[in-house]
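Quick illustration, no need to memorize.
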Amino acid sequence: MVGFLSGQLPLETTTVDIDELFSTASSYEVDFAYVKGRESVKRALTVAAAGGHNIMMIGPPGAGKTMLAQRLATVLPTLSLAESLETTRIYSVVGLLDKDKAVSIAMRMTL
């Protein structure tokens, strides 16, 4: 960095294909469609995801809260570029941004 700022070294340019980044970010290992039963809970999560609402899940251990929260990301709409940049800023400030990623494209829940 010092070499570039002092004019001794050139800066290499990097190009990023935004469409490719967004298409690969929307692939998940789990899927909300494979959740069996719990119709009222699935409906509540779907309504919250579609409307951008908050939801609080409470219950005893083993009730499926974590499993449902992990699969909720698969029904959320894809972030726009502006939303992705805002999310990246927040993750960067908090220190949660992966070192190998320049932009946080999709919010992946790791519970």
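Residues 14-94 form one domain.
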